[in-house]
User: What shape does this take?
Amino acid sequence: MAFDIQNIRDDFPILGQKVNGKPLVYLDNAATTQKPVSVIEAEANVYRTINSNIHRGVHHLSNVCTEVFEDVRQKVKDFINAPSSDEVIFTRGTTESVNLLAASFGETFLNPGDEIILTEMEHHSNIVPWQLLAQRKGVTIKVVPVTDGGELDMQALGEMLNEKTRLISVAHISNVMGTINPVREIVALAHAAEIPVMIDGAQAIHHVPVDVQALDCDFYVFSGHKMYAPTGVGVFYGKRKWLEQMNPYQGGGEMIDKVSFSGTTFNDLPYKFEAGTPNYAGIIGLGAAIDYLKQNHLEEIWNYEHQLFEYALDKMKSVSGIRFVGEAAQHTSVISFLLGNSHPFDVGTLLDKLGFALRTGHHCAQPLMDRFGIPGTVRASFAFYNTKEEVDHLVEALIRVGTMLG
Ligand code: PLP
Assistant: This one.
């Protein structure tokens, strides 16, 4: 391993603090990741040195700010290997990206009686926008079941496709179980029937290589804040052939070509989908996060994280009464579990007293909780600044909490 874990941790000031008198062990990375100093500084430096509204000014500050902002579009394009930066659209996050697709693709292409396929393991933000669309357009939603092991039932998916199917929208990695879905296979299956696919990459973009051309997906969406970038920024990637046909998502400044009361024409890609002033400071922070990840050698980060995940899974098996939710053959970065008959909330609260930040509850995936007949889970989710020592401490703490809760 070329990167030094202590140096990495030093880059994330928040990790050095104590919580309830104990060193913080932050294992809620699937909810949001912490930010390195370079990202914090990149965003702060916008306001210190170049703050000015982008794209609009003839003056120096506006030009510089626009240039730095547009550089990030290139960085994102390279990061996901998009064919063109015109296909990279900035949003507020995964949720807004899915809403953009549901609204624009939905309004442009969907008609009553059409079908969309989702899966039982989707985050609410890849369910509810489609339900709203389904109500508006009379579209039917079909749901791919999840197996006991936490994998997609691919046979069921194959059987659902028919001449009415207009889109498949699926998570790359489950935020509850860490299941890595066979997205390349799904795209191939869908494309054989000329059906486009959206991949929700919120939990994947920072844990596995993402190459949208190799995946051949039609749309890929993710949030900045889950990949060490500021909150309030995200990405919507779409193939040009769809974006050019899709209606705009929101109306406002920047997305227009010419406005008049007799009719308005729209701007070119990607601006057609970027109405209003974006969070340019946050987006510049996203560029810094990509730089930071690259400086620390992405492959080493992915390998380290995966080894840590395997180590944690193995160690946690030794905790008496632990039951994992989802044990897919391909999985990474997220471990959901229950401890005996204890309520996840009680486990999480006691862990918090010991300095551990883990998430408890339904993780915005209530249909998946219903599938397993549970109210929620305790979830440990890892990032590359976590360590084996932290995992060891977690296991000790779980044994202690298990004893306390009987
Ligand atoms: N999709 C998945 C798989 C997620 O894990 C999350 C957040 O946890 C989202 C979508 C929503 O992301 P955001 O709240 O950043 O829009």
